[in-house]
User: Fold this.
Amino acid sequence: MSAVLEIENLSVRSGETLLVSNLDLTIGENARVGLIGESGSGKSLTALAATGLLPPGLTATGSVVLDGTEVIGARDADLVPLRGSAVATVFQEPLTALDPLMRMGSQIYQPVLRRRRRAGEPAARADIEAEVRRLLERVALPDPDRIANAYPFEVSGGQRQRVAIAMALACHPKLLIADEPTTALDVTTQAEVLDLMAGLVREEGMALLFIGHDLPVVARIVDDVTVMRRGEVVERGPVGTVLARPEHDYTRTLVAAADAFDRALGAAR
Assistant:
Protein backbone atom coordinates (compact mmCIF):
# COMPACT_ATOMS: atom_id res chain seq x y z
CA MET A 1 0.00 0.00 0.00
CA SER A 2 1.49 3.36 -1.02
CA ALA A 3 1.74 6.19 1.47
CA VAL A 4 -0.41 9.29 1.09
CA LEU A 5 1.76 11.07 3.66
CA GLU A 6 5.26 10.07 4.68
CA ILE A 7 7.08 12.13 7.29
CA GLU A 8 10.70 11.35 8.16
CA ASN A 9 12.88 13.06 10.75
CA LEU A 10 10.68 16.18 10.84
CA SER A 11 11.81 18.98 13.13
CA VAL A 12 10.13 22.36 13.50
CA ARG A 13 11.92 25.33 15.06
CA SER A 14 11.15 28.86 16.11
CA GLY A 15 14.58 30.45 16.03
CA GLU A 16 16.70 28.22 18.26
CA THR A 17 13.70 26.71 20.05
CA LEU A 18 12.86 23.16 18.98
CA LEU A 19 9.08 22.64 18.83
CA VAL A 20 8.90 19.27 17.03
CA SER A 21 11.81 16.87 17.18
CA ASN A 22 12.73 14.14 14.69
CA LEU A 23 9.18 12.96 14.07
CA ASP A 24 8.37 10.01 11.80
CA LEU A 25 4.82 9.30 10.66
CA THR A 26 3.44 7.36 7.71
CA ILE A 27 -0.20 7.31 6.61
CA GLY A 28 -1.16 4.84 3.90
CA GLU A 29 -4.19 4.85 1.64
CA ASN A 30 -7.42 4.43 3.64
CA ALA A 31 -5.47 4.45 6.94
CA ARG A 32 -6.98 6.15 9.99
CA VAL A 33 -4.30 7.52 12.29
CA GLY A 34 -4.65 9.53 15.47
CA LEU A 35 -2.12 12.09 16.74
CA ILE A 36 -2.69 12.93 20.39
CA GLY A 37 -1.06 14.91 23.16
CA GLU A 38 -1.52 17.93 25.39
CA SER A 39 -1.67 21.49 24.08
CA GLY A 40 1.77 22.56 22.89
CA SER A 41 2.93 19.02 22.16
CA GLY A 42 3.44 19.77 18.46
CA LYS A 43 0.40 18.02 16.95
CA SER A 44 -0.98 20.94 14.97
CA LEU A 45 2.50 22.10 13.97
CA THR A 46 3.07 18.67 12.49
CA ALA A 47 -0.11 18.98 10.42
CA LEU A 48 0.81 22.49 9.28
CA ALA A 49 4.28 21.32 8.26
CA ALA A 50 2.72 18.42 6.35
CA THR A 51 0.66 20.82 4.26
CA GLY A 52 3.32 23.51 3.89
CA LEU A 53 1.35 26.00 5.95
CA LEU A 54 3.70 26.77 8.82
CA PRO A 55 3.36 30.43 9.90
CA PRO A 56 6.20 32.90 9.32
CA GLY A 57 9.05 32.54 11.78
CA LEU A 58 8.86 28.75 11.94
CA THR A 59 11.17 26.53 9.91
CA ALA A 60 10.95 22.82 9.14
CA THR A 61 13.70 20.33 8.33
CA GLY A 62 13.56 16.66 7.42
CA SER A 63 11.28 15.21 4.79
CA VAL A 64 7.53 15.42 4.24
CA VAL A 65 6.26 13.65 1.14
CA LEU A 66 2.58 14.37 0.42
CA ASP A 67 1.07 12.36 -2.42
CA GLY A 68 4.50 11.97 -3.99
CA THR A 69 5.60 15.61 -3.62
CA GLU A 70 8.31 16.77 -1.22
CA VAL A 71 6.85 19.58 0.89
CA ILE A 72 9.93 20.72 2.82
CA GLY A 73 11.69 23.38 0.77
CA ALA A 74 9.04 23.44 -1.97
CA ARG A 75 7.65 26.69 -3.36
CA ASP A 76 4.14 27.50 -2.20
CA ALA A 77 3.04 27.66 -5.84
CA ASP A 78 4.02 24.00 -6.22
CA LEU A 79 2.01 23.00 -3.14
CA VAL A 80 -1.22 24.84 -3.99
CA PRO A 81 -2.41 22.09 -6.36
CA LEU A 82 -2.07 19.53 -3.53
CA ARG A 83 -4.35 21.43 -1.17
CA GLY A 84 -7.82 20.13 -1.75
CA SER A 85 -6.92 17.26 -4.08
CA ALA A 86 -4.25 15.52 -1.98
CA VAL A 87 -5.20 16.91 1.43
CA ALA A 88 -7.98 18.92 3.04
CA THR A 89 -8.20 20.12 6.63
CA VAL A 90 -11.08 20.53 9.08
CA PHE A 91 -10.04 22.91 11.84
CA GLN A 92 -11.02 23.10 15.50
CA GLU A 93 -13.26 26.17 15.47
CA PRO A 94 -15.42 26.53 12.35
CA LEU A 95 -16.58 30.02 13.34
CA THR A 96 -13.04 31.27 12.69
CA ALA A 97 -12.28 28.85 9.85
CA LEU A 98 -15.31 29.98 7.84
CA ASP A 99 -15.60 33.45 6.29
CA PRO A 100 -18.12 35.33 8.49
CA LEU A 101 -19.14 37.63 5.63
CA MET A 102 -19.86 34.90 3.09
CA ARG A 103 -22.93 32.67 2.84
CA MET A 104 -22.03 29.08 3.58
CA GLY A 105 -23.26 27.73 0.27
CA SER A 106 -20.85 30.09 -1.51
CA GLN A 107 -17.99 28.83 0.67
CA ILE A 108 -18.62 25.30 -0.57
CA TYR A 109 -19.27 26.53 -4.14
CA GLN A 110 -15.71 27.82 -4.59
CA PRO A 111 -13.79 24.56 -3.91
CA VAL A 112 -16.33 22.61 -6.01
CA LEU A 113 -15.75 25.05 -8.88
CA ARG A 114 -11.95 24.75 -8.60
CA ARG A 115 -12.09 20.97 -8.52
CA ARG A 116 -14.39 20.77 -11.54
CA ARG A 117 -12.24 23.13 -13.57
CA ARG A 118 -9.09 21.22 -12.59
CA ALA A 119 -10.68 17.92 -13.61
CA GLY A 120 -12.23 19.27 -16.80
CA GLU A 121 -15.76 18.59 -15.53
CA PRO A 122 -18.86 20.71 -16.31
CA ALA A 123 -18.67 23.94 -14.32
CA ALA A 124 -22.04 25.53 -15.07
CA ARG A 125 -23.60 27.30 -12.08
CA ALA A 126 -26.57 24.90 -11.96
CA ASP A 127 -24.25 21.86 -11.84
CA ILE A 128 -22.18 23.33 -9.02
CA GLU A 129 -25.18 24.46 -6.99
CA ALA A 130 -26.66 20.97 -7.27
CA GLU A 131 -23.40 19.47 -5.98
CA VAL A 132 -23.29 21.96 -3.10
CA ARG A 133 -26.76 20.82 -2.10
CA ARG A 134 -25.71 17.15 -2.31
CA LEU A 135 -22.69 17.84 -0.10
CA LEU A 136 -24.87 19.53 2.51
CA GLU A 137 -27.18 16.52 2.43
CA ARG A 138 -24.21 14.14 2.77
CA VAL A 139 -23.16 15.77 6.04
CA ALA A 140 -26.73 15.33 7.33
CA LEU A 141 -27.67 18.99 7.55
CA PRO A 142 -31.41 19.65 7.84
CA ASP A 143 -32.93 22.05 5.33
CA PRO A 144 -29.79 22.37 3.15
CA ASP A 145 -31.23 25.28 1.17
CA ARG A 146 -31.59 27.34 4.35
CA ILE A 147 -28.08 26.41 5.49
CA ALA A 148 -26.63 27.31 2.07
CA ASN A 149 -28.14 30.80 2.30
CA ALA A 150 -27.15 31.37 5.94
CA TYR A 151 -24.07 33.10 7.32
CA PRO A 152 -21.91 31.15 9.82
CA PHE A 153 -23.21 33.11 12.83
CA GLU A 154 -26.79 32.16 11.98
CA VAL A 155 -26.39 28.42 12.66
CA SER A 156 -25.14 26.25 15.53
CA GLY A 157 -21.53 25.17 16.11
CA GLY A 158 -22.31 21.61 15.07
CA GLN A 159 -23.90 22.80 11.83
CA ARG A 160 -20.92 25.04 11.10
CA GLN A 161 -18.57 22.11 11.57
CA ARG A 162 -20.65 19.99 9.19
CA VAL A 163 -20.34 22.76 6.60
CA ALA A 164 -16.56 22.76 7.13
CA ILE A 165 -16.55 18.99 6.54
CA ALA A 166 -18.60 19.48 3.36
CA MET A 167 -16.01 22.00 2.15
CA ALA A 168 -13.23 19.49 2.79
CA LEU A 169 -15.11 16.78 0.88
CA ALA A 170 -15.73 19.11 -2.07
CA CYS A 171 -12.32 18.46 -3.61
CA HIS A 172 -12.30 14.67 -3.04
CA PRO A 173 -9.03 14.67 -1.06
CA LYS A 174 -6.93 11.56 -0.58
CA LEU A 175 -6.15 12.60 3.01
CA LEU A 176 -8.40 14.39 5.48
CA ILE A 177 -6.71 16.13 8.40
CA ALA A 178 -9.10 16.79 11.28
CA ASP A 179 -7.44 19.10 13.80
CA GLU A 180 -9.43 18.77 17.04
CA PRO A 181 -12.67 19.24 15.09
CA THR A 182 -15.02 18.49 18.01
CA THR A 183 -13.33 20.35 20.88
CA ALA A 184 -15.68 23.36 20.65
CA LEU A 185 -18.82 21.19 20.56
CA ASP A 186 -21.01 19.78 23.32
CA VAL A 187 -20.72 16.07 24.08
CA THR A 188 -23.81 14.98 22.13
CA THR A 189 -22.91 16.99 19.03
CA GLN A 190 -19.32 15.81 19.35
CA ALA A 191 -20.41 12.17 19.11
CA GLU A 192 -22.63 12.93 16.10
CA VAL A 193 -19.83 14.70 14.22
CA LEU A 194 -17.34 11.91 15.00
CA ASP A 195 -19.72 9.24 13.71
CA LEU A 196 -20.46 11.33 10.61
CA MET A 197 -16.78 11.84 9.88
CA ALA A 198 -15.97 8.16 10.37
CA GLY A 199 -18.70 7.18 7.93
CA LEU A 200 -17.66 9.72 5.30
CA VAL A 201 -13.99 8.72 5.49
CA ARG A 202 -14.98 5.11 4.96
CA GLU A 203 -17.41 5.84 2.12
CA GLU A 204 -15.03 8.19 0.30
CA GLY A 205 -12.00 5.91 0.72
CA MET A 206 -9.95 8.70 2.27
CA ALA A 207 -7.05 8.41 4.66
CA LEU A 208 -7.50 10.26 7.95
CA LEU A 209 -5.16 12.06 10.34
CA PHE A 210 -7.22 12.91 13.42
CA ILE A 211 -5.58 15.27 15.92
CA GLY A 212 -6.80 15.49 19.49
CA HIS A 213 -5.87 15.51 23.17
CA ASP A 214 -8.53 13.06 24.41
CA LEU A 215 -7.58 9.42 23.82
CA PRO A 216 -11.10 7.96 24.12
CA VAL A 217 -12.46 10.54 21.64
CA VAL A 218 -9.69 9.78 19.16
CA ALA A 219 -10.21 6.04 19.68
CA ARG A 220 -13.76 6.32 18.29
CA ILE A 221 -12.48 7.09 14.82
CA VAL A 222 -8.90 5.80 14.29
CA ASP A 223 -7.16 2.44 14.09
CA ASP A 224 -3.64 3.49 15.08
CA VAL A 225 -2.42 6.26 17.33
CA THR A 226 0.78 8.24 17.84
CA VAL A 227 1.26 9.98 21.20
CA MET A 228 3.28 13.20 21.36
CA ARG A 229 4.70 15.11 24.30
CA ARG A 230 6.80 18.26 24.13
CA GLY A 231 7.41 17.81 20.41
CA GLU A 232 8.47 14.17 20.55
CA VAL A 233 6.75 10.87 19.88
CA VAL A 234 6.59 8.86 23.10
CA GLU A 235 4.39 5.95 22.01
CA ARG A 236 2.57 4.56 18.99
CA GLY A 237 0.57 1.49 18.07
CA PRO A 238 -2.93 0.12 17.50
CA VAL A 239 -5.34 2.33 19.41
CA GLY A 240 -6.91 -0.57 21.31
CA THR A 241 -3.51 -1.73 22.53
CA VAL A 242 -2.38 1.75 23.54
CA LEU A 243 -5.62 2.34 25.44
CA ALA A 244 -5.60 -1.02 27.20
CA ARG A 245 -1.85 -1.36 27.86
CA PRO A 246 -0.11 2.03 27.62
CA GLU A 247 3.65 1.71 27.96
CA HIS A 248 4.82 5.29 28.50
CA ASP A 249 4.08 7.12 31.76
CA TYR A 250 2.63 10.07 29.85
CA THR A 251 0.21 7.85 27.95
CA ARG A 252 -0.82 6.19 31.20
CA THR A 253 -1.57 9.66 32.58
CA LEU A 254 -3.77 10.48 29.58
CA VAL A 255 -5.70 7.22 29.94
CA ALA A 256 -6.08 7.64 33.72
CA ALA A 257 -7.32 11.23 33.31
CA ALA A 258 -9.92 10.13 30.75
CA ASP A 259 -11.08 7.30 33.03
CA ALA A 260 -11.39 9.68 36.00
CA PHE A 261 -13.39 12.13 33.88
CA ASP A 262 -15.78 9.38 32.74
CA ARG A 263 -16.29 8.26 36.36
CA ALA A 264 -17.01 11.82 37.45
CA LEU A 265 -19.57 12.21 34.67
CA GLY A 266 -21.21 8.96 35.67
CA ALA A 267 -21.43 10.04 39.30
CA ALA A 268 -22.97 13.37 38.31
CA ARG A 269 -25.79 11.77 36.31
